[in-house]
Amino acid sequence: MSATRTPPADTAKQGWASGLTAFAAVMLFLVGLLDILRGIMAVAEDDVFVTTRNYVFAFDLTSWGWIHLVLGAIAVIVSIGLLKTAMWARVSGVIIAGLVIIANFLSVPYAPVWSIVMIALSGFIIWALCVIDRDNLFDLSEEAPPRSR
């Protein structure tokens, strides 16, 4: 016997929930892509970054590059799972966005404005993933169910 998953009825609340999930997926993809690019720049030791002395969390620029590169790659993978509205992707998305916030907070001296922008974007991702109800989602990769009038 096979159980067929039927999507919930289309309501305004479901539309908002699906929209927020799509928003979180796209934003997490962008944050991941930007983190990958930032990681590549740091590993290549580009002159884009400012180095400060006597910073409490002093890491080598190459170390920060690898941290951002790995977090960005994981964020891109999780964002693809968010389009399928998988619960593992929502939980992982919140965790990855939190780690991106921490990594960017710790690397504020190297790129202050960019770090603050990434912290804000990651905060919006966490908000979008936490505010929606699990029962109000349908698979974003499929066509939306027809509206009943």
Can you walk me through this structure?
This protein is mainly alpha-helical and 149 residues long. The model has no long low-confidence stretch (mean pLDDT 77).
Shape by Cα distribution: elongated
Distance between the first and last residues' Cα: 32 Å
- Regions with little confidence, pLDDT below 50 for 5+ residues: none
Helix content: 55-70%
Summarize the structure.
This protein has 149 residues and is mainly alpha-helical. It has four helices and no strands.
SSE map:
Layout: H1 12-43, H2 61-83, H3 87-106, H4 112-131
Tags for this model:
149 residues; mainly alpha
